[in-house]
Amino acid sequence: MDSGHEYIRSRDNPRVKFFSKLAASKYRAEERLFLAEGVKLASEALSAGGVKYLLADEEKYFERGDVFSLCESGGAEVIILSCHAFSKVSSESSPQGIIAVCSFPDFHMISDKCCAESLRDSRLIALDGIRDPGNLGTIIRCAAAFGFDGVIIGDCADVYNTKTVRASMGALFRMRITECENLSRYLSELGECGRRIIGAALCESSLSLGSFETESTDVCVIGNEGHGLSREVLDVCTDLVRIPMEEGSESLNAGVAASVIMWEYYKKRGIGEWRKNR
Fold first, then answer.
1. Dmax of the chain from CA atoms?
2. Which of 15, 27, 233, 252 could form a disulfide with 256 if both were Cys (CB 3.0 to 4.6 A apart)?
């Protein structure tokens, strides 16, 4: 193939083996690299910067000139793979023929130390034990859509799991994410700075969403899909909130619940005012 780029035919090539290992969390953490597959995600990643390699299926390469043109300014190395080699790296059942190999963003942090001053004007949502990567990605996507500045996570699914990356639909490349080993302590420090910590929980004492005045400094916390908020996080919550629903309805999926709550904050703030003040 005369493309001017490196071409790899074999699935057993060392570079192909290296890229395929990034499907495992252990190797992603060691290399600080993750995969973003598909035209939409690869384009978002290239626009945001931080793409080290762009892998292309040889049969799709010439169909995606618009994407590969972004590499010229982004500095990513393009590698063409045979269909056989590409399938070893791809996790899609119907691959689009493009995979971006991305560096962990600098604005994604691992920290148990809350720098309250730097977060003073930030609109935040916190996640406690969200284990489904699809839910995690959906919440990150909705946080970006509803004007939130950061997502704080504790004991959640891997942010760079391919399902999380896919569900975030590119928001992962824009959203500030802080991972905490001790979420309750982090939230407690935010509370000490005057923020309300509002946990989503079905309790008799829970406030009904929409029945109280929301504040831009509120930090809402969404709990585990099956067990809800941990005892430690519940103990630092200043208030609890529930989403009103028709009697007999099942509890909402964590991703949906988080989206409804974030929308309420977006709406109550006033969409025009929210945009003006950002």
1. 68
2. 252
Domain made up of 6-103: CATH architecture = 2-Layer Sandwich (3.30)
Q: What is the rounded distance in angstroms from the CA atom of residue 155 to the CA atom of residue 220?
A: 16
- Residue 122 is given by DSSP the state -
| CATH of span 108-277 | 3.40.1280.10
Q: Domain ranges in the chain?
A: 6-103, 108-277
**Mean of the pLDDT values across residues 210-215?**
90
Enter the pTM of the model.
0.90
Single out the residue of 172, 202, 199, 173 nearest to residue 188, CA to CA.
199
Q: What is the DSSP-derived secondary structure letter of residue 105?
A: P
Task: Between 179 and 120, name the one with better pLDDT.
Answer: 179
pLDDT higher at 120 or 22: 22
